[in-house]
Amino acid sequence: MTKAETLEQIIAERRTVKPEAYNGKRLDEALVKRVLASANWAPTHGYTEPWRFVVYSGESLKALGTFLATLDQPDKTDPDFNPVRFERLQNRPGLASHVIGIAMRAGDNPKIPEVEEVCAVAMAVQNMWLTAYSLGVVGYWSTGSKAYTDELRDFFGFDERHNAMGLFYLGLSDAQIPPGRRLSGIEAKTTWK
Ligand SMILES: Cc1cc2nc3c(=O)[nH]c(=O)nc-3n(C[C@H](O)[C@H](O)[C@H](O)COP(=O)(O)O)c2cc1C
């Protein structure tokens, strides 16, 4: 296979695989470091390198789960409190080998709009995701309504110059990688002039 064919295959085969499909095996830290190293090769406007990550594994996954479940349902005495949902959210990070908290650090250069920093973080996550897949590791970018909150940012341990951008789950799966699905081909989304 040519370099291009290998890359195209990795891009096309990378899938979202959620922690419920992970097999509970733990990844070597060296492998997670390799995935993170790829993130750092994402391009940026002005070398802002705005991606910031917090890696949770082992015991810290439990704290993360409890935090997420409590953020979702802070009041256990609320008549609408749903204990099943609470437990599901609480246990979810523990299904992964590692969960990487994703944040964006706002830059100092007023010429670089925030949207570019968000784009750069997303490119960093894609780099991680592709590298992970090429190493036989599956991943899932989880956001939802609480992903961009100050509470999550604070939990990560970042100050107000940062924005939380969700969580990246990593693990190993014995299940078949699900087939890809796109609503339309690239032709429907491209205009040539
Ligand atoms: C920025 C971003 C946030 C996402 N957040 C969620 C999420 O909160 N819940 C979810 O089920 N999937 C989430 N996804 C994954 C998408 O659902 C998934 O990428 C899409 O269904 C396409 O599937 P694929 O990744 O296997 O190609 C997110 C993806 C991106 C890029």
Give a quick summary of the entry.
This protein has 193 residues and is α+β, with helices and mostly antiparallel strands.
Secondary structure blueprint with pairings:
Layout: H1 3-13, H2 29-39, E1 51-57, H3 59-72, H4 83-91, E2 98-105, H5 114-134, E3 138-142, H6 150-156, E4 162-171
Helix pairs in contact: 2-5, 3-4
The structure holds flavin mononucleotide.
Flavin mononucleotide is lined by residues 15-16, 141-144, 180.
Please tell me about this protein's structure.
The chain is an alpha+beta fold and 193 residues long. Helices cover 38% and strands 16% of the residues. It has one domain: NADH Oxidase, CATH 3.40.109. Strands 1-2-4-3 form a four-stranded antiparallel beta sheet. The mean pLDDT is 97. The structure holds flavin mononucleotide. Residues 15-16, 141-144, 180 line the site of flavin mononucleotide (FMN).
